[in-house]
Amino acid sequence: MTDDRLDAEWLRGWCEQVDTALAKLMASFQARSGFEPGCNEVVLASEESHRATEALVELTPIPSDLTTMYWVIDEISLPDVENGYFVHPATLVADHFREYGAVQIDGEEPALVFASDGGGHLFALAGSGRIWRSTTPSWLDQFDLAAAGLQEFLEELSRQISGAGRP
Question: pTM for the whole thing?
Fold first, then answer.
């Protein structure tokens, strides 16, 4: 288990940084791509999403970093960054948990799927704080290490957004 926990203030700063980078990316997207972008956004948490986070916590023990993230961010939708990235809202995470349960990864505590990419690959956060990515678009196949923690995962998303606008 990592000692470095996700900090809500860092996360708020990350949201501001990403909003600026997304605005820049979307301003030039159509000229570079030849088509209009989809809805690329970081949706901040609301009272409703806080209630959904509380319900998720009651449903299953979730890693504290995920709780911190959901108190600041409701969801992230980036269909036009690389092949797409989506951090699911707590309501969807709860629905998926009810349907599929936790992801079992060898040598790791059960992991909770919280995100996906445009190819259907899943991202799961384990109790250790590590992020795992499915090797196929399946809940049942192998998962490989994707990031040491949620902050590293989000930093990589930020780099993808900043890099997407480059020729």
Answer: 0.93
